[in-house]
Amino acid sequence: MSKSSNFSEDQMPKKKPNISKIAREFDVSRETLNSRIKKAKSSPTPKDSHRNNLRAFQEKALINWIVKMHSWNLPPTAAVIEAWANQALSRAGQEKQVSKMWAYRFIERLPKHLQLAPVKQKTKELKRIQAEDAGFLAHWYDQLEFLLRDVPARLVYNFDECGFQPGQGRSRNVIGSSSSCPNLAESERGENITAVECIAADGWLMDPLFIFKSTGNFMEAWFDGSDNLPLNSAAAISQNGWITDELALAWLDHFIAATATSDRLKSGEKRYLLFDGHGAHLTLEFLQKCEQNSIIPFAFLPHSTHIYQPLDGKPFLNYKQQFRLMNNELSF
């Protein structure tokens, strides 16, 4: 008696099956069985089509996030969008990540009514930029006015970086003979110190973060006990003395704590942080930390910060003048 024909390919031998014998044993056509075996061999192992792609609700959340960032003058790059997608997959318990081209294909699929598409930010001649400033600035101020409507001045902050070159003082005239007046010392070119400063619209000033150029070990003891630094100043190092992604996050932690005091932040209020939206501030981690702490980031337009950046004008000019004066005294 033939066996039941309710069988699966899993019941078949794995090595060199005798198709004729199996066909007789299970009472099926040899041609049908042979066709099924060939089909099983040629078919790839089934995979979850969503294994390394976002689900519909995740894509919708990503689109909403991109629109929000765009309204704050912080258009995300493909790399930031890729990081957002991988983070969403990780939260869903998936180990695989999206491909390197996924973000570009996703951008091409953005709904047309959003009018969002890849835009290459090219360098332009200063004269051309200045000619376009009026229209861009008017739109930027309209956005800012809408954003800050009825917001108390104590909740509006601006931060920026100011670079100094240690040892690069200014020549000066003194009374004496050339043989008795030595030249001022000047450090090696390329040295840099960055001061990260933050002010509020009500005049409040946050203690600075100083970033020094170093590839060695950082010693807090170098700065402890100095009477020339504000009490809560912070210091850090980077390879070139400039702010990095990691230091931008560390500064943001410093800002969150310093502005969360009862006299500056009430329950349910949001803080508004205006800044130059370059690379160190456009990481997914930085933007998400802002969101997690009810901070609205709002970027200045590129190429125009010299016009409306509060710190980038006279405050930093005076800052650098005082630095040169003190540097001359130390170099003499």
From TrEMBL:
Residues 1-53 are annotated as: Disordered. The keyword DNA-binding applies. GO terms for cellular component: nucleus. Keywords: DNA-binding. GO terms for molecular function: DNA binding. Coiled coil: none annotated. The keyword DNA-binding applies. Pfam families: DDE_1 (PF03184), HTH_Tnp_Tc5 (PF03221). Residues 46-116 form the HTH CENPB-type domain. This is Transcriptional regulator family: Centromere protein B DNA-binding region. It comes from Penicillium chermesinum.
